[in-house]
Amino acid sequence: MTTINFDKVLDARGLSCPLPIVKARQEIASLQPGQVLKVLATDRGSVKDFQGWAKTAKNILLVGQTTEMIDGKEVYVHYVQKVG
Question: Is 17 annotated as catalytic?
Fold first, then answer.
């Protein structure tokens, strides 16, 4: 497994669609180009939401997605890099 370095963490666990994306968009605006935001979400739909966002947005790159078990729950982890 490849380790992805990140600069900031957004905990969006417990939030339903589309709030993880909405919160991520707000957080990514505060980052400098090249920095990476790690987003924790429990919404299963966030996987496709982040993939769709990365395809349409010009200022971000989805550098990784994975799942982790945290407190006995499956958590979807997204790594988004601000570009340009």
Answer: yes
How many Å apart are CA 67 and CA 46, to the nearest integer? Answer: 12
What are the tokens at 64? 């990784």
Helices (H), the chain: 19-28, 46-56
CA distance 11 to 26: 13
Encoded tokens for 57: 């947005």
**Residue of 17, 47, 57, 62 marked catalytic:** 17
pLDDT tens by residue, 8-34: 999 999 999 899 999 999 999 999 999
Distance CA 16, CA 42 (A): 8
d(CA 47, CA 45): 5
β-sheet bridge partners, residue 67: 76
